[in-house]
Design goal:
The chain has about 200 residues and is mainly alpha-helical. The chain has two domains: about 5-85, Winged helix-like DNA-binding domain superfamily/Winged helix DNA-binding domain (Arc Repressor Mutant, subunit A, Orthogonal Bundle); about 95-175. Helices cover about 55% and strands about 10% of the residues. The protein contains seven helices and two strands.
């Protein structure tokens, strides 16, 4: 699902400005979908141009007027078709895991810092999503409750795994052994003589 489709989905629930859409993404989807202002506002402009959403000016609490977007009938139909035709991908992109693949090259202090920070982030995520889950309540749509519960489970299992297996990262592998004495220096090459005359 791209950002345009996600915006249509959120707008199918209620009207919103770009700022509100960003906040809803952070509150509901932060554990699996990232969307910033740099992608939301261009997406809204394209959707409006295509007639899938329309906007109106609304007072901005003492600031400049803001645009509030509303999904159109064509937008609802487009979103419904998208849900029925898309092939949903479930991808994991983790700089944390990519870094730890090379854990043997990290000193112990740095390794512990990286792991501790990731653990704290996972526990915060678990707590945040659990709060969203409570806020949704039993009357929330089944899909919203499922996604919140899935996010809590992922964060909890990942944190538990790190806590139980972090000792594996500290085992001394060949790369963690003291460096061997440097090999004898190669015999110096005879410098190239550039002073002689060319043939």
């Amino acid at each position: 699902m791209d950002v345009k489709t996600l915006c249509l989905g959120l707008l199918s629930l209620e009207d919103a400005c770009g700022y509100e859409l960003k906040k809803r993404c952070e509150a509901r989807f932060q554990h699996f979908f990232s969307a910033g202002y740099g992608s939301i506002y261009p997406a809204l402009a394209e959707l409006a141009e295509a007639g899938l959403v329309e906007d109106r000016a609304a007072a901005g609490d003492g600031r400049a007027d803001r645009k509030v977007y509303r999904i159109t009938a064509a937008g609802r139909e487009h979103f419904r078709r998208s849900l029925h035709t898309m092939t949903p991908q479930h991808k994991l992109r983790s700089e944390f895991l990519a870094m730890l693949y090379f854990a043997d090259l990290l000193d112990t202090e740095r390794l512990n810092t990286v792991v501790d920070e990731r653990l704290q982030e996972l526990r915060r995520t678990e707590s945040h999503i659990a709060g969203v889950e409570r806020e949704l309540g039993r009357d929330a749509p089944a899909g919203a409750r499922f996604v919140a519960g899935f996010g809590v489970a992922l964060a909890r299992v990942a944190a538990d795994y790190i806590e139980e297996h972090r000792h594996l990262l500290l085992e001394r592998s060949p790369a963690r052994q003291p460096e061997k004495a440097a090999a004898p220096a190669r015999a110096a090459r005879r410098p190239l003589d550039l002073t002689g005359s060319l043939p």
